[in-house]
Amino acid sequence: MQAIKGKTALITGGSKGIGFGIAEALINEGVHVAITSRSQSAAEAAAEELVAIGGGEVLAFEADVRSLKDQQKVIEAMEAKWGRVDVVIANAGVGHFGSIESITAEQWQETIDINLTGVFNTTKAAIEPLKKSKGYLITIASLAGTNFFAGGSAYNASKFGLVGFSQAVMLDLRKYGIKMTTIMPGSVTSYFNGHEPAETDAWKIQPEDLGQMVVDLMQMHPRTLPSKIEVRPTTPPQK
After folding, report:
1. 18 lies in a domain?
2. How many domains, the chain?
3. I need a surface site. Which of 141, 157, 187, 236 has the fewest CB within 10 A?
């Protein structure tokens, strides 16, 4: 089992939901984490909670994944603080749903820009530091990356694209010792698409479950690479 205490990780969209669950799991293992949000106050509030847990150090940034420059600044700040970047978790995402008749051009563009181009930007910014550390790149996709549904034209397109992007990049980068995994969750308890977590979400995948999965991946022997992982709730409600 690989030791991960003292490693450094960037988590985009790390102020809540899946991103925060991953950050929490890594902090508990002594990993130093940098979290980003489009809101500096949200990033700082989440960082305070993480610092209170103890374990690793925390950096908080206002950064938009749609901006390559923003992602480069975060990576540079991590290198300045910790001297290295070991893990990058491209988690930030958005969902707009509706039939092709109702989805707007603006909603389409935002979905593609954040869910797909945003991961491209995060990946591009991190490649050289990850080469140095022989690090790990993890993208958070979705079961919607292989399962299409009515009203999902924008979201399906972004996640199908993300799965394809991730698998191609995995093949591009493994020659440098960089590992890459895409995690494809089904229903998760989160704040996604304006949802407020409630007791009725108990059957869903929890953010801490995905956090544990990231820890397990980081601790796995480097000879083995789970390149694509589908994750489902064990007992969804009967329809």
Report:
1. yes
2. 1
3. 236
CATH of the domain at 129: 3.40.50.720
What are 25-34's pLDDT values in tens digits? 999 999 999 9
pLDDT above 80: residue 157: yes
Look at residue 226 and tell me if it is in a domain. Answer: yes
155 is catalytic: yes
Burial class (CB in 10 A: 0-12, 13-18, 19+), 87: buried
Instruction: Tell me the residue type at 70.
Output: D
pTM above 0.85, yes or no: yes
pLDDT tens by residue, 172-209:
999 999 999 999 999 888 766 566 667 788 889 999 99
Q: Specify if 2 maps to a domain.
A: no
Give Cα separations from 165 to 122, 137, 157, 158 (angstroms).
13, 12, 12, 10
Q: Name 89's Cβ contacts closer than 8 Å, sequence gap at least 6.
A: 9, 10, 11, 12, 14, 19, 22, 138, 139, 140, 214
Task: List Cβ neighbours of 209 (8 Å cut-off, separation of 6 or more).
Answer: 21, 231
Neighbouring-strand partners of residue 190: none
Which range marks the domain in which residue 203 is found? 8-231
What's the mean pLDDT when you consider all of the chain?
95
- As given in the structure block, the two tokens for residue 105 are 């051009």
On whether residue 236 sits in a domain, the answer given is: no
Distant-in-sequence, close-in-space partners of 109: CB < 8 Å, separation ≥ 6 = none
Residue 122: alpha-carbon gap to chain centroid: 10
